[in-house]
Amino acid sequence: MGKLKTHKATAKRFRITKNKKVIQRTCGQNHFNARESGNVTRSKRRDHEISKSYQKTIKILTNTL
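The structure corresponding to this sequence follows.
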């Protein structure tokens, strides 16, 4: 069986940390943020970890399994 190619769109959207966690930017940061509350605005600044059920799939697509 040949090598798997890296899925470039997935590789650009997710980051794998040193502890093998999958991190993603918070969505919805581009516009319409003036109507959001302060708590929502602050939480959008932080990245968040992907759920365990998706982590294996993302690691396969980014060839970091």
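The mean pLDDT is 91.
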